[in-house]
Amino acid sequence: GYGGGGGLDVMGTARDLLGVDDLRIEGGGDPQNAKVGAGKYLREDVYLELEQGAQSGSGRASIAVEVSPSITVETATGERGQSSVGVNWTHDY
Asked: pTM above 0.85?
């Protein structure tokens, strides 16, 4: 509701309706560069993300798996068959 000055949370409502953990729209005011992304934790340590841009063939799917608290492995595949694998390492000082 609108009570308490909270206002309407459109992105939060859309996130809840779609059943995803993350929902974002990028691209500023240029429709040619617009992208919509949605992500969901399949488990506490596995995150699936789908992204679609305005351009044809710009779709992308990625899965990130947390191997340890400081190491994450990410694989991604695009609509045009391009794929990548990356390892991210973080260290708290």
From this structure: no
